[in-house]
Amino acid sequence: MRRYRLHHKHAAADCPAVFASWRGFASPLRHGVAKGTCRTGGHELWWDVDADSPAAALDMLPDFVADRTQVTAIDDVPIP
CB burial class (10 A; 0-12, 13-18, 19+) of residue 20? Predict the structure, then answer.
């Protein structure tokens, strides 16, 4: 299992649709906390998730959110 960062971007006008898309969607991310900039005008959200593949990571998101999300494999990097 790998760790992925999900980086989602949407337009300000799409904020209501982004949050409404979670209703009735079964996900380990639902009712959790994401890092985000919607309250400060940036309209981006980030999650760090463990999944078997990038596709499995995106499956944790509703389609409306997943369609606007980039997946990046991440790992801890020691900084000297």
Answer: exposed
CATH number for the domain including 13? 3.30.70
Within a domain: 80: no
Residue 29 belongs to what domain range? 2-74
Strands of the sheet containing 69-74, edge to edge, are 35-36, 44-51, 2-9, 69-74
Considering the domain boundaries, does residue 79 fall inside one? no
The 10s digit of each residue's pLDDT in 21-71 is 999 999 999 999 999 999 999 999 999 999 999 999 999 999 999 999 999
- Per DSSP, the three-state class of 16 is helix
pLDDT given for residue 15 in this prediction: 94
Helix or strand or coil: residue 4?
strand
Name the region of 7 (left: φ>0; alpha: ψ -120 to 50; beta: rest): beta
